[in-house]
Every structure is written in C-alpha cells, then in structure tokens.
Write a structure and sequence with these properties.
The chain is α+β, with helices and mostly antiparallel strands. It is about 65% helix and about 10% strand. The protein contains 19 helices and 11 strands. The strands form 4 sheets. The protein has a 4-stranded antiparallel beta sheet, with helices on both faces. It has a 3-stranded antiparallel beta sheet with strand order 7-10-11. Helix 3 crosses helix 5 and helix 12 runs antiparallel to helix 13. The radius of gyration is 58 Å and the shape is elongated.
Amino acid sequence: MSSSSGEESDLSDSEIYEFKEKPYEELRTGKLKVKGPNGSLRCPFCAGKKKQDYKYKDLLQHATGVGKGSANRSAKQKANHLALAKYLETDLGNEAEPTVKRAVTPERSEPEKDELFFWPWTGVVVNVSKETANGRSLDDKESWLKRFSMYMPLEVKLFCDDQARVSEAVLRFNSDWTGFKGAMEFEKSFEASHCSKQEWKSHRSCPGPNLYGWVAREDDYIAEGAVGEYLREKGELKTISDLIKEETQGRKEVVANLANEIDMKNENLDELQTKFNLNTLSLRQMLEEKDMLHRSFFEESRKMQRLAREHVQKVLMEQEMLSLELESKKKKLDSWGRELNKREALTEREKQKLDEEKKQNDVRNSALQMASVEQRKADENVLRLVEEQKREKEEALKKILELERDIDAKQKLEMEIAELKGKLEVMKHLGGNDDAAVQNKIKEMNEELKDKMEEMDGMESLNQTLLLKERQSNDELQDARRTLKEGFLEVLTSARAHIGVKRMGEIDSKAFQNALKQKFPAQEAEIKAVELLSLWQEKIKDPDWHPFKTIMIDESNVERVIDENDEELGKLKQELGDEIYDSVTAALMEIEEYNPSGRYAIPELWNFKEGRKATLKEVISFLFRQLKTQKRKRG
C-alpha cells in the first residue's frame, strides 16, 4: 500500500488529468453510483465517511475542493474527485438547485485535453493604462515581472497604441508542466477577481480601471492585432493530449537509448572478457611450449653425444682395419721383392725382365706408400676434427654447468657474507670493549668474513677465466667451419655433391639461360644472359635499393618480405617472366638474411638436397662417406 501511494503522489498534473478519464467513464456508465435510493447524492469515493448524503451544490463543492486540495491528498484521490466534479457539471447539471443569476461569469472548469492552447504557455493581460499601472511606467518590464512573480513568468512583452494610453501585455511562462501550472493559477487569479476573458468580452466597451487576464488559446492565436501577430511568430497551438504524447514519446526514446547503450556496454565487456581469456590461454600455452623445448634440448644434447661417441668408435675400427690391410699388402710386396732378388742369377733377359718387374713393383710400392701417407693424413685430419668437435661440445657443456655452479656458489657466498656482516654488527652492539669473549668472537667472525671475501674474489676470477675459454671455443668452432668452407668442400661442391658450398646472394644463372633461350637463338641467348645476370647482380649490391616491406605475423612478430609493388621488380617480371623474377627475389632474400650491410655474396656450407644451411655434423659425416668411397676405389 505504501509503495503504491508513493507512486501515485509522484504523478504530474498532466497525468492526473489523464487519470481522471477512467473514473469519469465508470461514473457515466453507472458502474459507480452517485444517486442514492431516496434521490439524494453521495460521493462514491468516500464510502467510509460519516456524511453520506449531499446536495448537488455541496457534493460539487466537496469534489472540487478535494480535486484541488492540498498536497496531503493522493494523486488518485484528486483524479477521482476531479472526475466526479466533471460528471456533476456535465451529466448532472439538471440536478443543480436554481440560483439567482449574477452578472459575473461562473468559474471556468479544468481545461479539456483536446482544448487548443498556445504553446509555450503565455498569459495575456489587457486594459493596461496609466490608471491600472499604479503610477508605474507602462513599459517598465521589471515592475510587471515583480507584480506577477508568484506565477514565475520568464519575460513580459508590452504592446502600446499610438497615443500610449491603452496597452496590452503578454507574459511567457516555462514550456513545461510547471509553467502550465503557473499560467493556470495566473488565469484563476483573474477569474477570482471577476476579470477573466469572459468578463473582458462583456465589458470591453466600458472596462473600467481593472486589468483583465487569461491564458492564450486558439482564438488569441488567430486574432488580429499585435498580440495575435506576436503569438503566431513565437509559438504554435497544441492540446494537452499532444503534449502528453510528446512527453511520453521523449521518455520512451530516452529509455530506448539508455537500453541500447547498456547493451553496447555489455557487448564491449564480453569482448574484453573474451580477449582476456584468449591472452591467458595463449600465455599458458607459451609456458608449456617453453618447458617442452627445454626438455627436448637436453634430450637432443644427450642423443648427439651418444651418436658422436658411436661414430668415433666406428671410425677408429675402420682405420684399424685399413691399416691391417695396408700392412698385408706391404708384406706381399716384400715377398715379391725377395723372390725377384733370388732370380737375379738367371739369364740376362730374365734379369732385365726381373728389373722391369722390380721397377714396376717399386713404382706400385711407392704409389701405395704415398696413398697410405695421404690416407693417414686424411684420417688424422678427420679424427682431429671429430675430436675437436667432441672436445669443444663437452667443454661447452662443462663450462655451462661450471658457470651455473659458480653462480650458485657465488650467490651462496654473498648470502653467507651478508649473514656474517649482520652477525658481526649484532655482536658489536651486544658487547662492550671490556667483554673479552665478545671481542674474541668478533675477531673470529672478522677472519671468517675475510676468508669468505677472498673465496668470492677467487670465484669471480674463475668465472672470468671460464667465460674467456668459452669465447675461445666458439672462435675455434667458427674457424673450423671456415676451414671446411675454404678447403674441403670446394672440391666436393665441384663434384655435384649434396653437401657443398653455396654463395649466398648470388643469382642462379640457369634461370636467365633457360628464359632467354626461349626468346633468342642459343649463342645470342648466352651473351644476353651473361649481360643481364651481371646487371642484376650489381643491382642487388646497390645499398640504396631496398625492395622490401615489413608485415605483421602476429601481435609480437614482424617479418621482412619482398615488396611486390617495387617498380624495378615489377618491370623485370613483366619483361623476363616469373623464373628470372623468382631467381632475383631469392638472391635478395639471401642477401637480406646473410649480409644486409655489405650486400655482397658470401660462401656458406649448404645442404643442396634439403635446400638449407648444413650443420658441422652433416659435413663431417659426408667427409667420412667420401673417404670410405675413395678407399674402396683404391682397393
């Protein structure tokens, strides 16, 4: 009950006028009874009151008084009694008691919903003269606003005739329902003084000294004169129903806009929550992948060490077998030499024959010895490379472990030193100069702290030594790779092996030859291919030409790729075809990866079978296979 009454008290004046229509219809249809059984009248909305029977005049006064009563009355009570007053005036007017007719016009009823008012609400004051101005100037707007300040007008406009004797004034109120209420009270004040619009019409020829006023309506809007022109210029005609509809529509639009804004906020919130969940999931996956890569790295390291040991053992066994085979062949040659020496006593021809065979055997023996020496040198070089690689890997792993242990030990020493310093400070504060035991303890702790500091300095020096050795090992690995590039693999590359040296950033000449042979004769195509190849190779070396662009792979990674919109490359593709274009762009990408600052071709160990950079393990394995092949050919 309390909540419903609170809601009713919040109804505006316009809603009260709208709400009274329902009880008015119930009164008209007879659903609510006003006439009693004995012909008396009663209020159907005050059934609990002691007084039930009213005369027409008393009931009308009761209904009007409650409908326009104080704020203590609820909006529903006001609307019901306004409906009863309207019903009594409209439908039960014949029940009114006959009264003596008066010269004045009766009070106006409440405005109808379909009655046309001038909007914004405006009051009209006529018969303005020096007599009615109470000694004030007719054009003093401030005095007029102060005079009607209780109705809260916003501004006043005065219209004077040519002689400035009689004037008219209009008062503009707020365009909302508060302004409507002030305007109606303004009109009722003139009605109470019998100076309403009806009285003005009846006494216009002899108005007297009084001011007449009312709220502007349709007839004022269409009237001739200064006031009518002013109203037509400043506003328009509207009914109460139109204003209620506009206000309701405005509220609905505000509610709809707020609902849409809430929906958009909720959608944005959902999107942010989704992004947060995706980022969390991505971070978790990255951590898991990091752990997996860490485990696979250590597993692969152990596997490579095991394979290297097995490979070295296999190489040593093969070397031993080759040495045994060489020794057996040398023994055979020695036996043949001894047999030839025994046959020296035979005839001269046989001697000459034996000499020739001996020379041939000597030549073969010398060739075998040279081959043996070369084989031994090659084996020693391979073994040295294998041993160096194995030793360097073991030293690198050992250095990493030693560095980790040294770092742990260094951290432990730092903690112990900090702890000793803290204890030493405590001991200094606890004991005085006269306490011998405390002084001895402090001396012992100072000596221990000094030892720890010396130990820490030694570990720091050891760390520097290990880091220096690690850099030396890396330099040795790079030197070994460079030696393989410059020496061994040049021979292997010329033999069309799948492991060899490739010049990174050098254009493939076959692409130019194949493309130009389709357009020119063979001899001319060869010449043009050489010319164009040299031209584009020099173009690649040009540091001012950068046909690249950067693209985003994901939120944190970017990649440099060929700019397909480059003018030079587009012209090349259009004139010479896709094969030459692909060869030039491949050389550009190699230069960008291997030597972007110098922009000249550099050699690199290459796996031609898989089209990638060859590892030292692949190179050494290939060397072993080549040595085996050469040994089988010699045997």
